[in-house]
Amino acid sequence: AQSVTQLGSHVSVSEGALVLLRCNYSSSVPPYLFWYVQYPNQGLQLLLKYTTGATLVKGINGFEAEFKKSETSFHLTKPSAHMSDAAEYFCAVKSAGRRALTFGSGTRLQVQP
Amino acid sequence: DVKVTQSSRYLVKRTGEKVFLECVQDMDHENMFWYRQDPGLGLRLIYFSYDVKMKEKGDIPEGYSVSREKKERFSLILESASTNQTSMYLCASSTPGGQEAEQYFGPGTRLTVT
Questions:
Q1: Residue B99 has what pLDDT?
Q2: What's chain B's Rg over C-alpha atoms?
Q3: Smallest CA–CA distance from A52 into chain B, residue
Q4: Is B85 helix (H, G, I), strand (E, B) or coil?
Q5: For position B70, what pLDDT does the model report?
Q6: Mutation target vs A (from B46, B99, B109, B110; most A CBs, 10 A cutoff)
Q7: Which of A21, A68, A98, B47 could form a disulfide with B66 if both were Cys (CB 3.0 to 4.6 A apart)?
Q8: Given CB atoms, is A7 within the 8 Å cutoff of chain B?
Q9: How far A42 CA sits from the closest chain B CA (Å)?
Q10: Coil, strand, or helix at residue A101?
Q11: Which of chain A's residues have a Cβ under 8 Å away from the Cβ of B109?
Q12: Strand, helix or coil at B44?
């Protein structure tokens, strides 16, 4: 069974600092990988996804993620944090034969002024 | 824009009540999903449906059932609500597409069972 591990349930950064949210997956075959963001009292919104091709994926709001097969990782980064980035972030995978997503436990990002 | 709506944002029910959570999508998507979100556990799949009247159990179906009589509507039913079903419930939809098809989420229903 596939699984997703997000290291760090809470991450705090200063405004303007680098954001790094970690995601590792376990899958016997390369999966499709997603990052979603959830703002307070809202549903989930897709940030970016990796399917095939270029391993560096750019998403909305200045976020990007790099698929590293050798490390089974898909870490999310943003060069400069903004106060509006404060939210919960979920990494998810989907592999062949499964219609639904498997989610990590989420990382809550706090941005300090 | 894809729109997924859920009938209630907040719901309070008593133990033993039958509870209906409704979800409607306006993009003619074949797939619809119900997830449960709990702190530290992320989202866990309860049930999904890939066509009208078709459904499959997810990872945590116990205590829940679903109904899909029309393509745009997917209902989650708690036959006899219990306190351990207090949670945030999220509905999602997607095209059948390939594995890369993204899911679109509703705003969620926060259910409290007392």
A1: 62
A2: 13
A3: B100
A4: helix
A5: 96
A6: B99
A7: B47
A8: no
A9: 5
A10: coil
A11: none
A12: strand
Strands (E), chain A: 3-5, 10-14, 19-21, 24-26, 32-38, 44-50, 56-58, 64-68, 73-78, 87-94, 102-103, 107-112
pLDDT in tens, chain A (113 residues): 678 999 999 999 999 999 999 999 987 666 789 999 999 888 899 999 998 888 899 999 999 999 998 899 999 999 999 999 999 999 999 877 777 889 999 999 999 99
B33 CB neighbours in chain A (<8 A) are 100
C-alpha torsion angle, residues A49, A54, A55, A60 (rounded to 10): -40
- Say if the Cβ atoms of A99 and B31 lie within 8 Å: yes
Comparing C-alpha atoms, which of A88, A94, A4, A100 is closest to residue A40?
Answer: A88
**CA of residue B38 relative to chain centroid, distance:** 14
